[in-house]
Structure to design on (252 residues):
């Protein structure tokens, strides 16, 4: 798994930069009701998406949170209001905000019960009628039918942490009902074999692949033999789901 404190310095440049962030923020804001006045962005990373959310909705008061000190430090330079926090135990009172967002977060949570706990926390801090917007099936979105995907196939983790059916089920347990969805393009995220090899060696695909023993080196050999080592394959399209917190006792 990546060390996101160290990753903070290069994260934006290696993840599509501003075009991807703007696409994500635009899709998120399309699912956040215009009447929302407060929004918490959990797992905000460097705050690039959060900053675009702020710019795209004047008057919306936005707070970011992240568990990695390095990421939170970069985000604080962008949006100011950022707290260092575990998304499973948010430092907010019940019913504190009108919207909660989690972009490219749930797929990273591989501990037993982690995704359920984060969804439950999002529900807890939402006011009745508030909206939780999150990416789902993030890693699967990168499967664009390329030769890189064929190389990955024998090593795919069998149970993605952010699978749609799982997240919808966790939401229902916490009084959250699906009310919308959206897709957006992962600009700059088309992969090349050469870039994938470097990412594998840094532990980037820990949420996507199971690579016991010498499997990493075997996969690297397959990737290194692919043609067009520097040609980017197709860009992914990411999916968002929007949930609304039920009013009354069922949502408490």
């Amino acid at each position: 798994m990546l060390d996101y404190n160290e990753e903070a310095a290069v994260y934006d440049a290696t993840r599509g930069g501003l075009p991807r962030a703007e696409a994500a923020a635009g899709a998120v804001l399309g699912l956040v009701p215009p009447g929302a006045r407060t929004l918490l962005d959990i797992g905000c990373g460097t705050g690039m998406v959060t900053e675009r959310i702020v710019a795209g909705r004047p008057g919306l008061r936005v707070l970011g949170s992240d568990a990695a000190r390095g990421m939170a430090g970069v985000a604080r330079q962008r949006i100011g209001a950022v707290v260092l926090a575990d998304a499973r135990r948010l430092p907010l009172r019940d019913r504190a905000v009108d919207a909660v967002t989690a972009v490219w977060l749930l797929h990273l949570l591989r501990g037993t019960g982690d995704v359920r706990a984060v969804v439950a926390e999002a529900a807890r801090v939402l006011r009745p009628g508030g909206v939780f917007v999150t990416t789902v099936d993030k890693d699967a979105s990168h499967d664009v039918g390329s030769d890189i995907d064929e190389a990955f196939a024998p090593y795919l983790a069998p149970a993605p942490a952010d699978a749609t059916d799982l997240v919808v089920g966790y939401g229902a347990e916490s009084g959250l009902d699906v009310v919308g969805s959206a897709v957006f393009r992962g600009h700059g995220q088309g992969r090349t074999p050469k870039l994938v090899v470097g990412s594998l060696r840094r532990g980037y695909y820990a949420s996507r692949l199971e690579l016991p023993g010498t499997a990493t080196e075997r996969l690297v050999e397959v990737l290194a033999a692919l043609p067009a080592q520097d040609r980017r394959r197709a860009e992914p399209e990411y999916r968002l789901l929007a949930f609304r917190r039920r009013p009354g006792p069922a949502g408490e």
